[in-house]
Amino acid sequence: MAKGRKIYEGKAKILYEGPEPGTLIQYFKDDATAFNNEKRAVLDGKGVLNNRISEFIMTQLNNISLPTHFLKRLNMREQLIKEVEIIPLEVICRNVAAGSIAKRLGIEEGAALPRSIIEFCYKKDELGDPLVSEEHITAFNWATSQEIDDIIAMTLRINDFLTGLFAGVGIKLVDFKVEYGRLYEGEMVRTVLADEISPDSCRLWDMTTGEKLDKDRFRRDLGGVTDAYAEVARRLGIIKDTAGAEILSFNQE
Q1: Higher model confidence: residue 10 or residue 246?
Q2: Is 102 helix (H, G, I), strand (E, B) or coil?
Q3: 119, exposed or middle or buried, with CB in 10 Å at 0-12, 13-18, 19+?
Q4: 12 close to 50: Cβ distance less than 8 angstroms
Q5: Sign of CA dihedral 90, 97, 155, 153
Q6: pLDDT at 63 over 90
Q7: What is the pLDDT of residues 98-111, one digit of tens each?
Q8: What's the rounded Cα separation, in Å, for the pair 46 and 73?
Q9: In which element (H, E) is residue 57 found?
């Protein structure tokens, strides 16, 4: 499918005009970044794996009537998505203490949280995506109170679904980050899940060994990043095995 002009390029994806009005083509890059783009690398095959994993999860969420921007996968690196107006918030759902919450609050990494906790960050790279409250969000008109309620309800529903999905293949869902957008349909506006869900945006630990199967392998110089992503895809039944030849063949398509 022919792409139109480039609309936007982020750290991990590129958006192009789609074939029909109201559609975009989302291209997954192999670029890996961390610490607000201070650490960077190119990891062959990462974009292919994220495309496949995000396709699988978005399809499952669409099937349970949770609205997303995803329409279909076009090839090994591209998806056809609905064009939405991105709400400038990163929404983090935490089940286990890890990353910034463990550092901020002095909680031991790996400790179960009393309940799932949702945090909001203002999506602004130059400010380091600062943590914000619902009061900030409504005061600065980033989202309405109703949109916040919808986002919280959808995020908790996603958490319930993903927790069960990953537990079924021996993976603990520690936390995840999602983004939402406004989908304009005539005079109606709906809040829908946007961006992606993949090991780039989730913390995933093996339930038996505690091995990290996510972007922390890149952040912490643990190595084997694409192998870990491929292991997640294999357990979900998306690919048959983690053979390097198979990942490389994905990368060539």
Answers
A1: 10
A2: helix
A3: middle
A4: yes
A5: negative
A6: yes
A7: 999 999 999 999 99
A8: 16
A9: helix 46-63
